[in-house]
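I hope you will forgive my troubling you with a question about protein structure. Here, with my thanks, is the record as I have it:
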Amino acid sequence: MTEEYNPEEENKSNDTSGVTIGSAIVPFVEQMYEQWFLEYASYVILERAVPAIEDGLKPVQRRILHAMYIIDDGRYNKVANIVGQTMQYHPHGDASITEAIVGIGQKELLIDTQGNWGDARTGDSAAAARYIEARLSPLGKEILYSPQITKWQLAYDGRKKEPKTLPVKFPLLLAQGVEGIAVGLATKILPHNFVELVQATIDFLQGKAINLLPDFPTGGLADCTHYNEGKRGGKVRVRARIVVRDHHTLIITEIPYGTTTIGLIDSILKVHEKGKIKIKNVVDNTAEKVEILIHLLPGQLADTVADALYLFTDCEVSYAPNACIIQNEKPVFITVNELLAHTATQTTGLLQQELVLEKQSLEEKIFFASLEKIFIENRIYSAIESCKTWESVLTTIANQLEPYADEFLRPIVEEDIVRLTEIKIKRISKYDALRSQEILSKLQTDLTATIHHLNHLNSYTIAWYGHLLEKYGNGRERKTELMGFDPIQRHEVAINNHKLHVDRKQGFIGHGLKSEEFVEACSDMDDVIVIRKDGKCIITRIAEKVFVGKDIIHASIYKKGAIRRCYNLIYVDGATGISFAKRFQVLGITRDKEYDLTLGAPGSRIVYLSDNPNGEAEILTILLSPMSRASKKKFEFNFAQLSIKGRSAKGNMLTKYAIYKVQLRKQGLSTLEEMELWYDVRIGRIGPNNGRGQLLGSFGPSDKILLVFKEGHYLITDYPLSFQPNPNSIALVEKLTTSHLLSVVFCHRLQKQYFVKRFMVDGRVPHKQYLIFTSEPEVCDVMLVTSAASPKLQLHYLVHPTSGEIRSIVYDLERIAVKTIKAKGTLLSKYTITQVNLWNE
């Protein structure tokens, strides 16, 4: 409403008499700006950014779909024409309308498109609005419109009417998803699967529990463990689908929702430039389907690189759902289950209104069909031939119909009689009583069915959704695979692209000290633990060159959470001269903070330190100073008698006399309890407490690990391994037993025949390579290894080379004698073997 201009009011406002300039005007300005801000914020929230709960549409989307309905004739319309029609209802520019139309069209749900509409996967934009076309889809027509029950309002200029909300009979908001940012408010509802939404609605109407999880049009993998029904505070992780084609190539076939192939490749190249991953090159072959080839460098593990891509690039993205909608002119936060329930209830109400309208329409049709039937069959029209006035015509017909009043559904009014007089003579002359009765019977049947639907409204709604699923569900199956994502440890996938060097005397560490002492390979994300002779310990991030203090006695890569790693230490207290021994761990730390491993007195120093990855406790020989007054100047000390404590522990007193030298007498065994070790076949890592891959068993200090390699050898090793094996070269990983029997099936490439040999594992010499093939190892390939006590094989062999007939048998390996590892092996079959598998009964 436009306010009238009043000069007197303006004069009053310009009159500053009695007003204190400064402090008095400030509250007025603040109030004015506060009102303007609230009005603007309210407009953005209600009219632009947040969808309504009734139809799940923002105003611009609603106006576009209404404009398309107005001009719909079944044919495609230029998008430019649709934009022009929409501008009659939408008080903004054509660019925003075009962008909204393209967004709706790319979802392939409500409108059919023709032309270049861009590609959400690659980020390619659509062609200009004058070149592309669109029309309403059959699904859109069925679920969006019902003009008779639509609530209308005047458009912004008051010239035309537009729907306040469309009578949508489907959880459209959940199907399409939405994202919007308003003033101090945001909404993000992820898209869900069409088929699952329909089925969940049916389940809700049947009183069953529902569990909705998002589904993305770009496919990929999704971890919805913390989806929390789409409420604030939830989280969804989405990953690209990465396929290992071979040892040297990865293929990305599906990308995360919200990303593009161009952006994804850019993120890969950026982390490659930073050195977090190393790859040969990236090739984008995306056409009808996504195909991004990632070529690896020699020696790289494909699974490890895939994990690194998930960790460092846009191959994995996270979304924080925030289901905010407009309900009763206010923003409300709800769950997706509540939103579905509201839509299902609303659909039931809309279908009820449509049924009531259909019932009224059928009753009117039956009424007039009955009226017409009596009017023609009883030749009432002939009675008005003698009438000379219009009033007498109406009166005559009314009198003639009065005897049949009980046969009609409602009383006859003047409009009904007027309608009878408008029946053409041609229709009366060709009137077919039998055909009229059939039509009337059909109308009666339809009315009975409509009344039945009204009386059983819930069942009717379920059947309506079932029809929707049957008609439009084909081809709309779930695209995103749901799964739980295992946590990816940064240090497991980070490549060692640097070398850690240390200048012990001057106190520098880093990967830029090329001429100094080499420690070990490292990555950009590693931390370094440094222990100095004065008993100070510090942990810092790897860098090119870092000063950590002079007289470094230990520097290594720090592994956070390594609960089995302990340090054995002997130090001399600077205040008393007493030597203490202790075993400690470094678990929780603050980076770049110095910690005292001694009592902290000036002059304290470390005389012995060892780093033990599995809690080993060595035996030392302690030599005291010849000048000391001790009666026994040489004795042994076993660290196993000490408990493992924290880094700040004082330790046990070793001696009060001066120590001359500390010598290692014997390497000790681990004093820790047995631990469960797992073999992660993806990256070749053997370690505790990860629960990933193959459980090897519980390991004590003396237990060994057996590794059998496809190249034709095995070795026995301790934990932790001094190397990380390539999983592609491992044939078997197991805990070594006292009588470990191996059955090895191998193929002789030159003879093209399969052999088997069975032998006992020799574990007397750890870390030694035992060759399985003592003769011609270069032409023998390990095909299968098992340590089962009674193994059986399933052999597939070619009977007749010409016919190509293949048969299979079960072969019991217990019939093969156990010999030494130097035995040649036994021929499995004289036929050409095509495949060998372990037989599981």
